[in-house]
């Protein structure tokens, strides 16, 4: 296989396929290369939440809100069942300290035009059964939603293909070709593809791809373990997170200094119910390299924490567990944009646990930047130089 | 953490037979099942088994289960019921739920005997109450003593479809049609003969096109198929019925084998994707064994033999038998298995099983 394309996208997860679709829609010739199958990385081993409340007020929330708009009509646009449901969501608040933090965040989010409020324990209990008595309350936003991330990836890939994109699976990128610091293509396990633009959407594996172009990026794999229960009648109101999850996300240092094994593993609650009826209970946030195995300690700590906050799920049988690697960056925002030192090398990775929520908007931003050189939000926050 | 020598997941015929072998050799066994009762599908099998006397021929399935349970009890096998296993962690730690609590058991060897589940068939009206798997209908009549309906259409004429049809009639229902997409009956002639003699209308080269009803099944529309399995317009027949039973094959329940990383291969005659295993029933992950339908869909008699084989092999690797004793015992089982896998039905399975074993033992890649 020796091919030529205007743009090569590396990675067949939600981000890569969304970008492939958005670029194809604007008439670009795109080849997407994926070393496994579609959604083989984090996109196929995550929960299904499109939760806006966990995003910090600013560009992050702005992106999520734009994505939420796109999601409303995406199923029709892609002509693929993606199981999108605008369910609303809540962040459960257990301690007074968490309440203070969440009040601050909610206040700022409201000013940003986001529809969110704080509920007391009794109001929260009206929305979700089985909550613990000792909770302080929760936040609530009607704007949260959920989706089947695997169907989303397949939907984006198929829609891109219909617009002329080529999707090459089970093919690994083995090298980035460049001449005089200018991209000329990629080498793969099945021949070369010539191209002047290469987009790195390899998620947790993006650092290795960037390394091939001589670029260091501060993305690290962060493992999330998730539990699946048996199928049950509708039980979870929508997306449920816990305030501690938000803390684990933005303050990994707090976790290191704790002696609580659950906190050390970054355990926070992420609860949602799938279309079939199975409930997903997540998750840990751990730095263990590229190890995707599930640990009993992790599962125990998730269950301990989840049943402490929502004792109502105690009676459910768990039937399966899995783990995936999220692409972590130190400030929780992705790296998006052309790299300065290698002309034509574009980064779009590092969404950590926000990949599903931010995939549609990332596709728009990336296609804007590549075709027009500018986009509708302040993209300087995605600049890799912020880490220097 | 609790510990055991061998953890067996699934207390059906394969799992029970494996447990008995290991316990007889002096090993400590823990048997898991997610159901409240052990025995797997045996308790709903009220018909007599085939084969030779060694294979309990002439004995009814549930009697075989009673004997297996009695043996496990006498040998002191620990049986954990209502205990779904959700994962096996790296060092042979079995994660399971019991009494609503997550628990774990440390094992040295693990036998996966998780069985199979029924294939689904999609057709309009397929979600109406009254459409069910043939296995569900069999459980209702033979275990719960409840008649699922009065006028039944059976889709699929493999052994399950034939036997369940006959048992539904024995239980007092009318089987108003037996529908088979292939041009001939799938199961054993002796079962088909019973159905024919009872006067059940057989529709070969037919499939269900539509099932209609207000709140439950009221009628099915069946249609003839041409040699390319395409529906022939104008051949529709309307048949009044209140129950549609689907028996279109089984597929191995392999989730745990996938989770622990066993290599798989695709063999349609054995039910689809099956874990590769050697002559000891050991998978490509050392210390993990498979037995019964998980290693290729067959029947209870061969499941029990495979269970014995896995049990003997486990006992051997734990040092409970020396090599000579173990190979003698294994040879006896293999001889019986070869007898079971004879005839036009058995031979095909034997050929496919042989391929599977060759693959795990480093033979050439197939398919």
Short description:
The complex is a heterodimer of chains A (388) and B (367). Chain A is of the alpha/beta class and 388 residues long. In chain A, 32% of the residues lie in helices and 25% in strands.
Number of domains of chain A: 2
Main structural class of chain B:
alpha/beta
Count of discrete alpha- or pi-helical segments spanning 4 or more residues of chain A: 11
Q: CATH topology of the largest domain in chain A, what is it called?
A: FAD/NAD(P)-binding domain
Which SSEs are present, and which pair or pack?
The complex is a heterodimer of chains A (388) and B (367).
Chain A: E1 3-4, E2 7-10, H1 14-25, E3 30-33, E4 49-50, H2 59-78, E5 89-93, H3 96-111, E6 117-120, H4 121-127, E7 137-141, E8 145-146, H5 149-162, E9 166-168, E10 173-179, E11 182-188, E12 191-194, E13 197-200, H6 206-212, E14 220-231, E15 239-242, H7 243-250, H8 252-256, H9 261-264, E16 270-273, E17 278-282, H10 296-309, E18 318-328, E19 335-338, E20 345-349, H11 355-371
Parallel strand pairs in A: 1-12, 2-3, 2-13, 3-9, 5-15, 13-20
Antiparallel strand pairs in A: 4-8, 5-7, 6-7, 10-11, 11-12, 14-17, 14-18, 15-16, 16-17, 19-20
Helix pairs in contact in A: 1-5, 1-11, 2-11
Chain B: E1 2-3, E2 6-9, H1 13-24, E3 29-32, H2 61-74, E4 78-80, E5 85-89, E6 93-98, E7 101-106, E8 109-112, E9 116-118, E10 131-133, H3 134-142, E11 151-155, H4 159-170, E12 174-180, H5 189-197, E13 202-204, E14 206-212, E15 219-224, E16 237-240, E17 243-246, E18 250-252, H6 255-259, E19 264-267, E20 272-275, E21 288-290, H7 300-317, H8 323-340, H9 343-360
Parallel strand pairs in B: 1-7, 2-3, 2-8, 3-4, 8-21, 10-17, 11-12, 11-17, 12-13
Antiparallel strand pairs in B: 5-6, 6-7, 9-18, 14-15, 15-16, 19-20
């Amino acid at each position: 296989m020796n091919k030529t394309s205007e743009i090569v996208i590396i990675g067949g997860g939600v981000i890569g396929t969304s970008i492939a679709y958005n670029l194809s829609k604007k008439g670009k010739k795109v080849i997407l290369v994926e070393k496994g199958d579609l959604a083989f990385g984090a996109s196929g081993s995550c929960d299904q939440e499109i939760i806006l409340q966990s995003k910090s007020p600013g560009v992050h929330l702005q992106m999520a809100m734009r994505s939420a708009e796109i999601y409303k009509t995406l199923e029709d646009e892609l002509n693929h069942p993606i199981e999108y449901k605008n369910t609303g969501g809540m962040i459960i608040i257990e301690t007074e300290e968490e309440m203070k933090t969440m009040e601050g965040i909610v206040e700022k989010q409201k000013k940003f035009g986001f529809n969110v409020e704080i509920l007391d324990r009794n109001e929260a209990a009206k929305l979700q059964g089985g909550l613990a008595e000792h909770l302080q309350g929760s936040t609530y936003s009607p704007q949260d939603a959920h989706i089947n991330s695997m169907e989303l990836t397949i939907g984006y890939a198929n829609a891109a293909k219909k617009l002329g994109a080529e999707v090459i699976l089970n093919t690994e990128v083995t090298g980035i070709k460049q001449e005089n610091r200018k991209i000329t293509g990629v080498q793969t396990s099945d021949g070369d593809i010539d191209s002047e633009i290469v987009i790195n959407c390899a998620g947790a594996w993006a650092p290795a791809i960037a390394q091939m172009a001589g670029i260091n990026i501060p993305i690290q794999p962060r493992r999330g373990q998730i539990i699946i229960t048996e199928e049950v009648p509708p039980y979870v109101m929508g997306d449920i997170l816990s305030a501690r999850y938000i803390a684990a996300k933005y303050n990994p240092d707090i976790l290191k200094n704790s002696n609580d094994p659950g906190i050390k593993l970054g355990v926070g609650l992420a609860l949602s119910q799938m279309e079939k009826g199975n409930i997903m209970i997540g998750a840990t946030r751990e730095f263990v390299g590229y190890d995707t195995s599930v640990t009993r300690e992790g599962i125990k700590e998730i269950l301990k924490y989840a049943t402490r906050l929502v004792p109502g799920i105690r009676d459910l049988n768990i039937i399966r567990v899995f783990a995936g690697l999220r692409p972590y960056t130190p400030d929780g925002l992705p790296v998006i944009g052309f790299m300065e030192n290698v002309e034509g090398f574009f980064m779009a990775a590092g969404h950590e646990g926000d990949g599903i929520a931010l995939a549609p908007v990332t596709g728009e931003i990336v296609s804007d930047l590549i075709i027009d050189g500018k986009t509708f939000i302040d993209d300087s926050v995605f600049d890799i130089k912020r880490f220097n | 953490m609790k510990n055991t020598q061998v953890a067996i997941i699934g207390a059906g015929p394969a799992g029970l037979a494996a447990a008995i072998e290991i316990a007889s050799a002096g090993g400590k066994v823990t048997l898991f099942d997610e159901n409240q009762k052990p025995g797997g599908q045996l308790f709903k099998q009220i018909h007599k088994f085939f084969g030779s006397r060694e294979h309990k021929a002439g004995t009814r399935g549930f009697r075989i289960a009673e004997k297996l349970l009695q043996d496990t009890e006498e040998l002191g096998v620990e049986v954990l019921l209502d205990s779904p296993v959700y994962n096996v962690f790296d060092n042979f730690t079995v994660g399971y739920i019991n009494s609503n609590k997550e628990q774990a058991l440390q094992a040295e060897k693990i036998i996966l005997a998780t069985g199979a589940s029924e294939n689904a068939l999609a057709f309009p009206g397929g979600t109406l109450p009254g459409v069910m798997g043939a296995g569900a209908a069999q459980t209702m009549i033979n275990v719960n003593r409840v008649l699922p309906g009065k006028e039944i259409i059976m889709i699929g004429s493999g052994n399950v479809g034939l036997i369940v049809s006959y048992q539904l009639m024995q239980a007092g229902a009318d089987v108003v049609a037996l529908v088979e997409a292939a041009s001939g009956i799938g199961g054993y002639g002796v079962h088909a003969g019973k159905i024919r003699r009872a006067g059940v209308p057989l529709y070969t080269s037919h499939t269900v096109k539509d099932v209609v009803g207000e709140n439950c099944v009221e009628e099915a529309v069946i249609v003839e198929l041409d040699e390319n399995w395409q529906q022939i317009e104008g051949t529709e027949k309307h048949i009044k019925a209140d129950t549609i039973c689907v028996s279109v094959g089984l597929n191995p329940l392999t989730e745990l084998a996938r989770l622990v990383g066993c290599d798989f291969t695709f063999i349609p005659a054995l039910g689809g994707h099956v874990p590769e295993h050697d002559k000891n029933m050991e998978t490509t992950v050392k210390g993990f064994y498979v037995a019964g339908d998980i290693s290729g869909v067959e029947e209870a008699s061969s499941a029990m033999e495979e269970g014995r084989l896995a049990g003997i092999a486990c006992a051997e690797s734990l040092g409970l038998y020396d090599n000579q004793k173990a190979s003698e015992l294994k040879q006896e089982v293999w001889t019986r298995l070869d007898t079971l896998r004879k005839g036009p039905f058995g031979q095909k399975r034997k050929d496919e099983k042989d391929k599977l074993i060759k693959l795990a033992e480093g033979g050439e890649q197939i398919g």
